[in-house]
Structures are given as structure tokens and as C-alpha cells.
Design brief:
The chain is of the alpha/beta class. It contains eleven helices and twelve strands. The strands form two sheets. It has an eight-stranded mixed beta sheet, sandwiched between helices. Strands 2-1-4-5 form a four-stranded antiparallel beta sheet, covered by helices on one side. Helix 6 runs parallel beside helix 7.
Length: 328
């Protein structure tokens, strides 16, 4: 039976910039069960990383601030949690794989010591030797020989650095792993190896994962559920097969239309026209309306709610209900 691990309700995060307010995340609702992988997909600046930072309690304040909503992890509201409670959870129960392995590691510390530090911090009473042994085991877990414990980050390739970052994140067997575009800086061959590694470790450790990416190919390989985010709002959410086979939102359709396919005979891709709106001056109605070919006047007049158009499939579009026949 599925057991809920993470529930985000009506989450709103803003950044104050001079005399303006940047509306980074707007009334987001998400749910993640134990052992499940949820893909969070959207353009650069859509609010994906800000949601992850909100979960970790790392939204920089100032200028950032969680102005509304709840983030419930295993029964605890992380928005109201104290700094002490967050420090106990962060790295032990919730870990994050940051986007760029080149800058995520300390260049003047041995890689083994960087893993050992996390283990010691969250296992009071464990000796330095025991923590070092666990760090060696964690290195082996991600496919790096324990003999390389005393080497420095510059002695590793980009793919190996990413494996070390994954080792640091998994050192304490977290219940939730936040992966922020973990393969962006890697070439395609190494990407495949890292994704295969993450998938295997997730199954072995029964870890839940929130995978942040703009790559729909990665999502298809890794995720059971998918949430499409645009201008800080979830515009479509559901099982992966819903998003890929029964696409309902015009923005999601646009994302797929701009992807090359070996099965498609088109000679040119179809890009989404225009740009994402300024988060300091968002449209009154549907945030995608200025770029949407199907937009009507009603779309521009008032905010569009996220509605369930079929069991487990949610969409933020006034015309989404017209597609219910696809499920018959």
C-alpha cells in the first residue's frame, strides 16, 4: 500500500528585489510516496530549484521567503520547523544532489573526508575510523574504488565527480533524494551511466526521489509521476503515461513538439513561440496564455485552477476537459 512521504500544499515562495517582488513559486501542490520518483519538468527560471530549496529549508532569506503553504515531510511541516530540526533532517533524511558537480565539492578537501564529514555529523558517537570505513563503503557503492579516498576533486573526471556528489547525498541512507538536474554538465554517455546508477541505488535503498530536469527523455527513464511547471505553477501533473500518452496542457504539447524523434518524419521541429513571462509581472489569468495558440479571452481574465480531468491526471487549462475522451 502506498505511503505518503512528502506533501506540498499551496506553496508560495517570493523574492524581494529592490522595490519589486519576484513570484518564483505560486500555489504549488505536489505529493510523493515512499519509493517513488517524481519528475519536475520546466524551463530555466520556472521555479524548479526554488521548490527543492524550500524543501531543504535553504531559500536565502533575504531576499527569498516562503509566504504561504506547507511542506509536510513524514508528518513534520518543514515550513514551521526550527533551524535545529532542519539541520537534523538535512543530509540525513533529505539529501540533495546539486546541479554542478564541479562546484558542489570542496576543491581543497579529500573526497573521502567530504563523505566522512556527513556521516560523522549525523551519527553522534561514531568514531572517525568507523565513519571513514562507511565513507569507503559509500564510494564503492557508487562505483569508485575505496583506494581513491585520499584523492582530491581535481583528480576525478566530471562523471566521477558526480558519483562522489551522489555518494555524499546517499551517505546516511536518506528517505528523500532531491536531484537538481544531476546530469546537465555531463556528456550523453556519462549521463546514461549516472542515471543507471541512481536508478539502481534508489531501488536498493528504497529512496524516494524528486528529479528536477528539463529533459523529458530522462523523465521517461526515471519517473513514475511527472509534474510540468510553468512560471512557478504546476500546469499538468499525473502518472508518466498520462503526460506522455495523454498530454492535456498546451505547454506540455509544446514541449513534446519541440523534441526530435526518430519515429517522426517532420523535417523541422515546432518551437514554443515567445518567452516565459517576467516573474515580477505575471499575467492576471493563465500564465501561458500570451504564448498559447488556443488561448481565449476567458484565459486572460482570471487564474485557471488545477482540475482533475481523469483519475490522477490534473491539468490547469480551461479546455482540458475536452480531452477526457482519450481515457475511454
Amino acid at each position: 500500500m502506498e505511503k505518503e512521504l512528502l506533501k506540498i500544499s499551496d506553496l508560495t515562495i517570493q523574492y524581494s528585489v529592490e522595490n519589486s517582488v519576484c513570484q518564483a513559486v505560486n500555489h504549488v501542490d505536489l505529493k510523493l510516496n515512499r519509493g517513488e520518483t517524481l519528475g519536475l519538468v520546466g524551463e530555466t527560471g520556472a521555479g524548479k530549484t526554488t521548490i527543492a530549496l524550500g524543501i531543504m529549508g535553504l531559500v536565502p532569506d533575504p531576499p527569498g521567503r516562503i509566504v504561504g503553504g506547507t511542506i509536510t515531510f513524514d508528518g513534520l511541516d518543514l515550513v514551521k520547523a526550527t533551524k535545529k530540526e532542519l539541520r537534523e533532517i538535512r543530509g540525513k533524511k533529505i539529501s540533495m544532489i546539486f546541479q554542478d558537480p564541479m562546484t558542489a565539492l570542496n576543491p581543497i578537501d579529500k573526497v573521502g573526508d567530504q563523505i566522512r564529514e556527513v556521516i560523522e555529523l549525523h551519527n553522534k558517537g561514531m568514531s572517525k575510523a568507523e565513519a571513514a570505513k562507511k565513507a569507503c563503503d559509500t564510494l564503492e557503492l557508487v562505483g569508485i574504488p575505496a583506494e581513491r579516498y585520499d584523492e582530491y576533486p581535481h583528480q576525478f573526471s566530471g562523471g566521477m565527480k558526480q558519483r562522489i556528489v551522489i555518494a555524499i547525498a546517499l551517505a546516511c541512507n536518506p528517505e528523500l533524494l532531491l536531484a537538481d538536474e544531476p546530469t546537465t554538465a555531463l556528456d550523453v554517455t556519462i549521463q546514461a551511466q549516472v542515471l543507471e546508477l541512481m536508478n539502481g541505488l534508489k531501488r536498493k535503498l528504497n529512496t524516494s526521489m524528486l528529479l528536477i530536469t528539463h529533459d523529458l527523455g530522462v523523465v521517461a527513464e526515471m519517473c513514475e509521476k511527472v509534474a510540468i511547471i510553468y512560471a512557478g505553477e504546476i500546469v499538468e501533473y499525473g502518472e508518466a503515461e498520462h503526460i506522455y500518452d495523454r498530454t492535456a496542457h498546451p505547454y506540455t504539447e509544446g514541449l513534446f513538439g519541440s523534441l526530435p524523434s526518430v519515429a517522426d518524419e517532420r523535417t523541422r521541429l515546432t518551437p514554443i513561440g515567445g518567452l516565459m513571462p517576467d516573474p515580477m509581472n505575471l499575467p492576471k489569468g493563465c500564465k501561458f496564455a500570451p504564448r498559447c495558440k488556443k488561448a481565449a479571452e476567458a484565459c486572460k481574465e482570471q487564474p485557471v485552477p488545477l482540475v482533475e480531468i481523469a483519475p490522477g491526471h490534473f491539468c490547469r487549462c480551461l479546455f482540458a476537459e475536452e480531452k477526457e475522451g482519450r481515457y475511454e
